[in-house]
Amino acid sequence: LWCGAQYILHFPSPRSLEAPSPLPAESKLFQLLQTFLLPSANSTKVAGVAVLTDMFVYVLDPDTWNLRICYPWVHQAMAEGDLVKLVSSFKLAMRNVIRFMHEMAVQVQAEYPVVFQLHTGCELHPNGTSRAFAKIGEGGRDL
């Protein structure tokens, strides 16, 4: 994937991802796909993308945790102050998720290095209803 960023991340094409359930016509699917590499109990590498229907919305820079926005309209859709708050909240949430991942590694007695994959999102339906989902896996198995 290249999104104006200076690096390449290898994620499946959004078109090849299966929705968690069949979507009614005109529904929108927002997905967050993240991979957490835990080489040891003291370090973590994170890669991730956000996908809206079949468009990559942002790519997570694994070195800085900055979000590389793929489309100018994403910036235009929110006030600059809101984007700063969102990124700050995102980074705090990432720290909490990483702490949780290390706790899970201990709980499932995994040997380092450990790789967790997270697939979360929300289905937005035309009638105004929505359904959130979260899946986490380690070593090719669901947790």
List keywords for this structure.
143 residues; alpha+beta; Murine Class I Major Histocompatibility Complex, H2-DB, Chain A, domain 1; 2 helices; 7 strands; globular; glycoprotein; MHC_I/II-like_Ag-recog; MHC_I-like_Ag-recog; MHC_I-like_Ag-recog_sf
Helix-strand layout with pairing:
Elements (H helix, E strand, L loop, with lengths): L27 E13 L2 E10 L2 E6 L6 E3 L2 H5 L3 H28 L6 E11 L5 E9 L2 E2 L1
Antiparallel strand pairs: 1-2, 1-5, 2-3, 3-4, 5-6, 6-7
Pfam families: MHC_I_3 (PF16497)
Organism: Asarcornis scutulata
Protein name: CD1D protein
Structural features, described:
With 143 residues, the protein is of the alpha+beta class. It has one domain: 2-Layer Sandwich (Murine Class I Major Histocompatibility Complex, H2-DB, Chain A, domain 1). It is 23% helix and 38% strand. The chain contains 2 helices and 7 strands, in the order ββββααβββ. The radius of gyration is 16 Å and the shape is globular.
- Tell me the Rg in angstroms: 16 Å
DSSP summary: helix tally: 2
CATH structural architecture = 2-Layer Sandwich
Major sheet description: 7 strands, antiparallel
Order of helices and strands: EEEEHHEEE
Classify the fold: give the CATH topology.
Answer: Murine Class I Major Histocompatibility Complex, H2-DB, Chain A, domain 1
Helix content: 10-25%
User: Which class best fits the helix and strand makeup?
Assistant: alpha+beta
Write down the overall geometry. globular
InterPro entries: MHC_I-like_Ag-recog, MHC_I-like_Ag-recog_sf, MHC_I/II-like_Ag-recog
Domain MHC class I-like antigen recognition-like: 26-142
Protein name: CD1D protein
Keywords: Glycoprotein
